[in-house]
From TrEMBL:
Official protein name in the record: Receptor-like serine/threonine-protein kinase
Compartments, record wording: Membrane
Membrane-spanning intervals of the chain: 439-458
Signal peptide: 1-20
Bulb-type lectin domain: residues covered: 20-142
Keywords, comma-separated and alphabetical: ATP-binding, Disulfide bond, EGF-like domain, Glycoprotein, Kinase, Lectin, Membrane, Nucleotide-binding, Receptor, Serine/threonine-protein kinase, Signal, Transferase, Transmembrane, Transmembrane helix
Catalytic activity reported: L-seryl-[protein] + ATP = O-phospho-L-seryl-[protein] + ADP + H(+); L-threonyl-[protein] + ATP = O-phospho-L-threonyl-[protein] + ADP + H(+)
CDD domains membership: B_lectin
Keyword Transferase: yes
Native source species: Nelumbo nucifera
Predominant place of localization: membrane
Enzyme class: transferase
Length: 791
């Protein structure tokens, strides 16, 4: 060989570390042993088993030369494995697959496609699998977790997810960075269906990607020819003397860090959010964020609330008690108002109830106390912005909230100076005195005796003989504060005469339209109730639906914007869900939604049903949970729709007799027995739908019915149960590589679905337990449906 070709060969082989240590078929590493990782040629990075503080391991990549051993990628962040687990590039009949085998025998494929002949841990932090050519078959740079490294590109459709709690908990956190297909780079609190608290505003520019430049360590948005938006402002030089990383941290901030080689610690050189408390939902529901230096973040609970997890207040808070907010004159007897100086509740993430302007602080306090549906308010520049539950994004931010005041309505019996007021944060006012508290308790006790006497007097036996004249519901009058009352003429104009049909909903047709409110165009869906239904159901039914829907607010429920109750016209106005039904997404021909998106949708729907059952003020049984009644907004967030069939229950009720409702296939067996139904009918329907979401196929496939097939997979629940009993559940997703690579979670969620569809209602779990099992916070036992003889 001549000298020139030899030199060219050496140059090519050295570029991007293709001369890295070769991992051949049969190579194996074991967690907790000296042979637990494969290192890059320079030793800068390692790929293998990363030890957690609890003794379990993640399959990950980390900076290996520095004391911090900083993790930059993980394959199993939500499912760590114990010591003695193995990672192997397989041989034999399934040669060239990368498989993780836990010490308990369960296996997960990190890569399972065209056989890889070798693997390499490169000096740029990228682990690659190649064929004999050699061409790259799979690389970790294509599936980032929370970090980007120099040379890495985030293309359209790819996402970063924060860790849950720094280096304590590496599991998937609350924040997401997405390079959207419309070319917008968006940071969002995705659990709350947040449209984004930071956006690049690079929308509708073709082929935009987020690039972390390998040479100069600058980060920018770039299309095929130009830099569209530079992000990094400066990095220390020379670049090669430093390690570099960009990470979406557990506080929702995208930050760039450098580490001088042979030095002591990481240093931040750039961040996209300069005021940390402007990150949406950073302290969870009913939490409040404070950041006096705009560097550190401190979470606390609003007055009247306590932390869900005392060890991590950022998870959010819940009310210390839930008094009836809309009893007669509640403000005079049950509540006081606490004020936090230099604090605010920005609009994003929760509903406004209107504004009062011009006014002063006392006028804002009065507006808050007079509105039983209002739980908080912001007083800003002579304007009072009223808020309702749930309260998100409360913040004390050094620059953004100076001079603002946050007002919170707190039940007197729990107005004890706790939460942020007791910590002397920014001059917050103290709660009521001990003397006033005692007086309040005495008054409450007196009223309790009075109410007890009234309860005896108005016992149902007595009430039967008392006929009171009917008057319009006070709650519907109050709804005018929550919901807008439209005239029929307004809605007729907004829908162009009810011409564009979206479909048929409960009791009537649904039309699309556009409203102009305060010079803004809002797209709406209008449900016109059938005349027969309206006449039969009457005012009482219509008002019940208004009361129920108007008081609900959850990211996974379709929001009611207003109503029309004019003459014979009964019309409900909803936010428009642009992407149609979940049914169309799951069962249409062509590309199915990604596994991660299906998991997100299943969890969101579960949380929405849980809210209806246990968390909203008036308990609601939906009675017709199915994919056709789950709609998708512009971000493809799943939202439960159609409360026209819901049976409204008071908090102290557990069962209700009602006519058979629901849809065949999703209907719980007790409907057909004319037995009193409970919330467990929704659990059954959710279980059927959950299995449909996991498998992207209908519970009963019409094609198989038409073909009169006798295959065991005719009914989805029965097929999955049979596959689990025979140990062949992988057959269900054998053509779904994403689900197969996350088989442990698929198996867990499938088992939850079988728990839900047990024919005996008491054996079905509550939606709270269903949600916990889906999230992985409690164990999923063997569903009794699999082994009925053991029940």
């Amino acid at each position: 060989m001549s000298l020139l070709p030899l030199l060219l060969l050496l140059l090519v082989s050295s570029e991007h570390n293709t001369h890295a240590q070769t991992i051949t078929q049969g190579a194996t590493i074991t967690a907790g042993t000296t042979n637990s990782s494969w290192t890059s040629p320079s030793g800068d990075f390692a790929f293998g088993f990363y030890r957690l503080s609890n003794g379990n391991f993640l399959v990950g990549i980390w900076f290996d030369k520095i004391p911090e051993k900083t993790l930059v990628w993980s394959a199993n962040r939500d499912a760590p494995v114990p010591a003695s687990s193995t990672l192997r590039l397989t041989t034999g009949t399934s040669a060239g697959h990368l498989i993780l085998t836990s010490s308990d025998g369960n296996s997960t494929y990190l890569y399972q496609s065209t056989a890889a002949s070798s693997g390499y841990m490169q000096d740029d932090g990228n682990f690659v699998l190649k064929n004999a050519s050699p061409s790259v078959l799979w690389q970790t740079f294509d599936s980032p977790t929370d970090t980007l490294l120099p040379g890495q590109v985030l293309v359209a459709g790819r996402k970063l997810y924060s860790n849950k709690n720094g280096t304590v908990d590496y599991s998937t956190g609350n924040f997401m960075l997405e390079m959207q297909k419309d070319s917008n780079l968006v940071l969002s609190a995705y659990h709350f269906a947040d449209p984004g608290y930071w956006v690049s505003n690079t929308i509708n520019i073709n082929n935009v990607s987020l690039v972390f430049n390998r040479t100069n360590a600058f980060m920018y948005l770039k299309n095929t020819t130009d830099i569209i938006l530079p992000l990094t402002e400066d990095v220390p030089k020379p670049t090669e003397d430093y390690y570099h990383r960009v990470t979406l941290n557990d506080h929702g901030n995208l930050q760039q860090h450098v580490y001088q080689k042979n030095n002591s610690q990481w240093k931040m050189v750039w961040r996209v959010i300069t005021e940390p408390c402007t990150v949406n939902a950073i302290c969870g529901v009913y939490g409040i964020c404070s950041s006096p230096d705009n560097e550190t973040v401190s979470c606390d609970c609003l007055p009247g609330y306590r932390p869900l997890d005392p060890n991590n207040i950022a998870k959010g808070c819940y009310p210390k008690s839930k008094p009836d907010r809309c009893i007669e004159k509640p403000s005079l007897t049950n509540f006081t108002v606490e004020v936090i100086d230099d604090a605010d509740f920005p609009n994003a993430g929760f509903a406004d109830l209107g504004r009062v302007t011009p006014t002063d602080e006392e006028g804002c306090r009065k507006a808050l106390m007079d509105d039983c549906y209002c739980m908080a308010a912001s007083f800003v520049n002579s304007t009072c912005y009223k808020k309702r539950m749930p309260i998100l994004n409360a913040r004390i931010s050094r620059n953004s909230t100076n001079g603002y005041k946050a007002l919170i309505k707190v039940p007197k019996q729990i107005s004890d100076g706790g939460g942020i007021l007791n910590g002397d944060h920014h001059g917050g006012k103290k709660s009521v005195s001990r003397g006033l508290l005692k007086a309040g308790l005495f008054t409450t006790a007196a009223f309790a005796l009075l109410f007890a006497a009234l309860a005896v007097y108005y016992h149902p036996v007595v009430r039967r003989f008392i006929r009171r004249p009917r008057r319009p519901s006070a709650d519907v009058d109050a709804m005018l504060i929550n919901l807008r009352a439209f005239t029929f003429e307004e809605l007729h104009e907004a829908t162009c005469g009810f011409t564009t049909r979206l479909g048929r909903g409960s009791f009537g047709m649904v039309y699309s339209g556009t409203l102009v409110i305060e010079d803004k165009q809002i797209e709406i869906a209008v449900k016109a109730l059938k005349k027969i239904a309206a006449a039969e159901r009457g005012e009482e039914e219509f008002e019940a639906e208004l009361r129920a829907i108007g008081r609900t607010h959850h990211r996974n429920l379709v929001r009611l914007l207003g109503f029309c109750n004019e003459d014979k016209h009964r019309i409900l106005v909803y936010e428009l869900m642009k992407n149609g039904t979940l049914s169309n997404l799951l069962f249409k021909q062509g590309e199915k939604p990604s596994w991660e998106h299906r998991v997100e949708m299943a969890l969101g729907i579960a949380r929405g049903v849980l809210y209806l059952h246990e968390e909203c003020e008036t308990q609601i049984i939906h009675c017709d949970i199915k994919p056709q009644n789950v709609l998708l907004d512009k971000n493809y967030t799943a939202k439960i729709s159609d409360f026209g069939l819901a049976k409204i229950m008071m908090k102290d009720q557990t069962r209700t007799n009602t006519n058979v409702r629901g849809t065949a296939g999703y209907m719980a067996p007790e409907w057909l027995k004319n037995a009193p139904v409970t919330t467990k009918v929704d659990v059954y329907s959710f279980g059927v739908m959950l299995l449909e979401i996991l498998c992207c196929r209908r519970h009963i496939d019409p094609k198989r019915v038409e073909e009169e097939t006798e295959e065991v997979d005719l009914v989805l629940t029965e097929w999955i149960a049979d596959c689990i009993k025979s140990g062949k559940l992988n057959m269900v997703v054998e053509e779904d590589m994403e689900a197969l690579n996350d088989f442990k979670r698929f198996e867990r969620m499938a088992m939850v679905g079988l728990w839900c569809v047990h024919p005996d209602p008491p054996l079905r779990p509550s939606m709270k337990k269903v949600t916990q099992m889906l999230e992985g916070t409690i164990e999923v036992g063997i569903p009794p449906l699999l082994y009925p003889e053991m029940v």
